[in-house]
Amino acid sequence: MNTTESYCTFHLGDLYFGIEVRKVQEVIRYQKTTRVPLVPSVVQGLMNLRGQIVTALDLRKRIGLDDAGDDVTPFNVVVRANDGIVGLLVDRISDVIEANPHDFEVPTETLGGELRELTRGAYKLKDRLLLILDTDRVINGATQ
Amino acid sequence: MDDFDDVIKEFLVESYEGLDQLDRDLVALEDAPDDRDCLGSIFRAVHSMKGASGFLGLPKLERVAHVGENLLVPLRDGDLKFNHDIADGLLSMVDALRDILGYIEADGSEGETDYEILATRLATLLDNERATADPETEDAGATLSEDEVTEVVAELNHPESEAEPAVSSDADVVTTDSTSGEVEANASEVAHEETAEAVVAAPAAVAAPAATTPPASTSAATTSASESSSKQSSGSGERSTSLADSTVRIDVELLNKLMNLVGELVLARNQILQFSSTTEDAAVIAASQRLNLITTELQEGVMKTRMQPISVAWSKLPRVVRDLSASCGKQVEVHMEGAETELDKTILEAVKDPLTHIVRNSVDHGIEAPEIRRANGKSAQGTLTLRAFHEGGQVNIEISDDGAGINVDRVRDKAVEKGMVTFEQASEMSDRELTNLIMWPGFSTAAQVTNVSGRGVGMDVVKTNIERIGGTVDMNSVPGEGTTLRIKIPLTLAIVPALIVTTGEDQYAIPQVSLLELVRLDGDRTKNDIEFIHDAPVYRLRGNLLPLIYLDEQLELRTRRHRDDFDQTVNIVVLQAEDRQFGLVVDLITDTQEIVVKPLCRHLNGVSVYAGATIMGDGSIALILDVPGVARKGNMLSEQHEQIIKSGAENNVSEELSAQQSLLMVDPGDGSQVAMRLSTVARLEEFSASDIELSGQSEVVQYRGGIMPLIQLGAGENPAERDDDQRRVQVVVFTTGGHSVGIVVSRIMDIVQQVLDQDNASIIPGQHIIQGRVTELVDLETLVRSRYPAIFDQPTD
Description:
A: about 140 residues, about 50% strand, B: about 800 residues, alpha+beta, Heat Shock Protein 90, 5 domains, elongated
């Protein structure tokens, strides 16, 4: 009845996130970005994606996590948003998984402020929770 | 006359398109006779063609379209049922229209053909269908089998499907000409076989009109029609292709895509050029040069496709003014100058609405009612002038009216009343600044809110819209005489020349439109030449105080510099924002380049300092600075700032400007500073020390085919005795009465504007303080006279 949805999953610190595969354009290795002064630090900078200028957001900062430190080379999840594409920097990329809608739950009360705002809910997987990011909110609220 | 031709041309192109659409719609209607939308669109097409042809003075076209429209009205209203006869009649009308258009295109006339019979036929169709009484036409209608009609129609509309194009276009004309009945039955030329065949396939279609045309027998009409049509169609065929083929309507989306691709190509070209500059391979260099040229040409070409005259945006304004002035009881005349000025389509679209708004405002608020105008000694009729012209890579659009102007006091009261500014602020503002308050959000001075304008949203929206496309709006008003609104917008947004600078290790691009000049001061001069007015650094640029801001400070990459920090070499980019000049200090000035402007994603739009971003030759990204934005950020545009600059300058500059002298500063060789009036200097020359010869006691040099004696300005040693013959010698040339004398100096330092203590008329040589240094002012004439008095006495040759 309910169709299963595929998610591109990744790690940020201890947290495990997913974004609908259909919203993800590609995943690329970290590349140097050009900083943009005067904008909130959530904006990591601009990068050149095959001739297209893409804004890269530091997802850690966005959801209120501390800096990952220098030893982590982030990955870039390029997401199609309402107006153009945006790169989200994540610690480590994981598999594409199919999640069963029966396991889905709306955000739990236990999730802290920002994170609860930015997730649409979670899948209870066998051994852990997969938090589903609301990419529109992540992107739109980034610079406000 | 040319203008009129252009109008006709446009009308033709549009009409041909309209007719093609009519063909399609009519055929589609046969399958779905009750499609009201389709009927509506057909009606509108015919109606607008009628209107346009009436306007352009094409009576025949108008007549034909008119009878068509008559038939279409009851159809559209549902009073008449669409059937094959009607479709046929209407298609004949379409063909007739196309014929006339062909004639117009060929020689401007509407042709000799008489279309009264077609008109009668359409009228009959209308009457008959209404009355459903006339048996004769019923019969005629009956002779038309549905299949045959469909076949003909199919041929008309899908020439490639059944018959050869030539044949089908002939068939087009057959229906028309046979209805015209003007054909000669005994014409001797033998019709094309193909044509004949086509006509054989078409007689049923011809039969219907023929039935209402008693004198012409069916067969005669058919034969002769085929003949004349074969003559005509070859002609009209050529005609209709000429215009239709020379212009193509293209989806703007496609153009935008092309533009983007060209942008990418420019970037790739820049990369290739960068690579090829490091190679020795002649073939690579040649190929990249060619790529460079072709890319540039392609870029220009594609840009041109997007250019449209501003009249496109202006065209509806006279109507707006007319309606509006009528409803306000005012008399307004619209003048347009420079309607042919071209600008990019995107920009044109963006200025359309602001323009309309401004014009509405001018008519509603600016221009007074006739009686008031008369009372004020003006003509009853107000004038609204639209001017457009290119200037410095930008398009200027001026909208001026000769109305009442802006009441500055009322603006001030209103602004204070609305809490936009405090009373103190308002009282310090200049008239110009007050005038421009009108463009602040939430402002409206109209005492009465009309349904036209004055609702408080307006000018601020105009300003925002114009600024969004990189333009500026400035308002100037003289009470009682009128208001002028000046819009400056870039010619195109896509590819602009820019200056690349570096600050804080990042590259930034500054559009060259705003660039005036570059000044570099080395450490010593920075210390001396940068002055402070209330802690704000300024540089004296040729007598004018140029306020300075640091790019890294504006971008908040570092904290504000202290006075003592001004001892480094500075690179000043002198920029113009609105009507102010300011200096932007950057770390490094790298290059100028054509850059492709890419918009920033929406989230970053809020930062007004950036106009976009671009990709550099090496693939890195540089932010494009928005010069007015930077100026605003640095408070360069506030009047207060100007006041400060003025007050600082008043002490020593403003009154003295007129008494200024251009002085050439030289170093005579002993480290001191000597100044000479630039007006007395003929040229600056450079010689090799080996060129200097001795003539008696004098040093001379061969100069312009003569001998020029030299004077050592300093106490320096005799250059001719130096062993280094490669040394270059700087010489200031003084010329009088055809004779030149060279003054040898060690170094040419600068040219400065300076006010000297003495009376302008007789500057007494002696010591002055110039640029903070004790400087000896040398009068060249006195100097030369003291050494070579003879040349002043010699006659001029």
